[in-house]
Design a protein that fits this description.
The N terminus and C terminus are likely disordered. This protein has 205 residues and is α/β, with parallel strands linked by helices. Strand 3 and strand 4 form a beta hairpin. Strands 2-3-4-1-5-7-6 form a 7-stranded mixed β-sheet, sandwiched between helices. It is globular, with a radius of gyration of 16 Å. Helices cover 33% and strands 21% of the residues. The protein is built from 6 helices and 7 strands.
């Protein structure tokens, strides 16, 4: 019964909605590696799901190889997505979900780590190049567009180039205690930036 329910929920999540009334928010990362710097986008999605009260509603959708959760935001909906493919192929999951939802690239938000920003620094970028990020590069290629808004979460860059791979695939150290408030601020920034028409009457931005 649980399997049938999850399957039914996943089908509901990806039913096309009215134009301009739904956004996809994708947390980029590597499935099976929670807590690593490279998967901080997925951690932000987890915090966003908790904030919106849907942390227990993730459902797997095999059509796009991802876990999804649907949340109300005013009169609109957010569809949260955590790919089940490796970072270099995240774009296949994101593009397939966007196709099933009938969304354009401008309606897809990407959340990902950024080596070139100090730990805890956030920036919201509107389109542009991948800046060397393989997950973003995959999304640009699969969506055939670079117009996706992106929330970049700083993880810092190690001093020696040879240490980059171990750094991004490693877990946040005990001394990096800034992460919980960073997830909160990242969630605030996302919810503040979703287009104002997503908010119902009387909702503050």
């Amino acid at each position: 019964m649980g399997r049938l329910l999850r399957r039914a929920l996943s089908g509901c999540v990806l039913e096309p909605g009215p134009p301009g009334k739904r956004w996809l928010v994708a947390g980029l990362g590597n499935p099976g590696l929670p807590g690593t710097r490279h998967s901080v986008g997925m951690a932000v999605l987890g915090q966003l799901a908790r904030r919106l009260g849907v942390a227990e509603r993730w459902a797997r959708d095999r059509r796009c190889a991802a876990d999804l959760a649907r949340a109300a935001l005013g009169d609109a909906q957010l569809v949260l997505l955590r790919p089940r493919r490796l970072m270099n192929a995240n774009g296949r999951s994101v593009a397939r979900a966007a196709e099933l939802l009938g969304l354009t690239a401008e309606e897809v938000y990407l959340v990902h780590d950024d080596l070139d920003k100090p730990l805890g620094k956030l920036a919201l970028k509107l389109g542009g190049s991948a800046r060397g990020h393989n997950g973003v590069r995959s999304c640009i290629s699969c969506l055939n567009s670079n117009a996706m808004p992106r929330l970049r979460v700083g993880i810092g860059r190690p001093t020696h180039p040879s240490a980059v791979q171990a750094h991004v695939l490693g877990c946040f150290s005990p001394s990096e205690q800034e992460l919980p408030p960073v997830l909160e601020r990242a969630t605030d920034l996302l919810l503040d930036h979703i287009p104002s028409e997503a908010r119902g009457p009387g909702q503050a931005p």
